[in-house]
Amino acid sequence: MKRKIRRFFKVVLVGMAALAVAFGIFKNLERDFIRRATEHLERNEPYEALAAFDSWQTSKVYHLVSEWNLVDPLWHYHWGLAALRTGDYQKANVQFRRVGEVSSDPVLKSLAYFNQGEARLWQWDAGAFEDAASFYIDALKIDPEMVVAKKRLEWLRHANLVKTKAEMKAKGDKGKPGKRSDEQDKDKAEQSEKFKSTQGKQRRGY
Fold first, then answer.
1. Tens digit of pLDDT for each residue in 32-85?
2. Is 192 exposed, middle or buried (0-12, 13-18, 19+ CB in 10 A)?
3. CA-CA distances (angstroms) from residue 2 to 16, 152, 175?
4. In this structure, are residues 80 and 115 in contact, taking their beta carbons and an 8 Å threshold?
5. Cα–Cα distance between 16 and 170 in angstroms, integer?
C-alpha cells in the first residue's frame, strides 16, 4: 500500500514538474512574441502585428492558457492596439475589455479603458459616442490626470455629440440655447463628419 502511495506521489510530482517546464517555455515564447509585435507597431506595421496575433488565435496552446487566465494582459493590450490601428474595432474592443478583466495594473487598465473608448468611438453606430464617453470616464476614474481622455470628453461635449443628464439639468434646457432641434442635428452631423475625416491620423491608441 505504501509503495502505491509513493508511486502515486511520484507521478504527481513528475506531472507538476512537466507542467512547470511547459509553462516556463510558453512564457518565454509569449514574451518574445509580445516584443516582436511591439516592434511591428513601433515601425507602423499594425497589419503584420495583427496577422501574427490572429495566427495564434487558432492555436490549441493559446486556447488552453486563455481558459486558465494565464495569458499576459500585455498580449491582449498589444493585440487590441494592432486591431485598433487596422480598423478592426470590434476585435480591438474585445481585447481591451479582456485587459480590464485580467490586469491588476492600474496604468494598463486605464489605458485599456481609454482605447476601448477609441474603438467604440470609431464604430460610428447608434450609441457609439455615449459608450465611448463612458469608457473615457472609466479611464479617468483610475487616472484622473489622463490628458487624452479629458480632451476626448471635452471634444465630445463641446461638439454636442454627448451630454450628460446632469449637464442638461444644470443648463435647464435640452440643447444649445436659441437653436432648434433640426439645427442641433445638423451641427452634430457636421462635427461628426469633421472628426471622422481625421480617423486615419487619430486611431493609434495609447
1. 878 888 898 999 999 999 998 888 777 776 666 677 677 889 989 999 999 999
2. middle
3. 21, 68, 81
4. yes
5. 62
pLDDT at 31 > cutoff 90: no
Residue type, 178: G
- Nearest residue to 94 via CA among 50, 151, 36, 126: 50
Closest CA to 22 of 54, 57, 64, 55: 64
One DSSP character per residue, 171-203 reads HTSSSSTT--HHHHHHHHHHHHHHHHTTHHHHT
Residues 154-171 have a mean pLDDT of 65
Q: Is 125 left (phi over 0), alpha (psi -120 to 50) or beta?
A: beta
Q: Note whether 114 and 149 are within 8 A (CB).
A: yes
Largest CA distance in the chain: 90
Task: Give the DSSP letter string of 42-75.
Answer: HTT-HHHHHHHHHHHHT-HHHHHHHHTT-S-HHH
> Rg of the chain's alpha carbons, rounded to an integer?
23
Mean pLDDT is highest, among 3-7, 53-57, 119-123, 136-140, for 136-140
Cell triple for 118: 477609441
Whole-angstrom distance, CA of residue 69 vs CA of residue 63 = 10
And the C-alpha cell for 7?
508511486
Tell me the average pLDDT across 88-108.
93
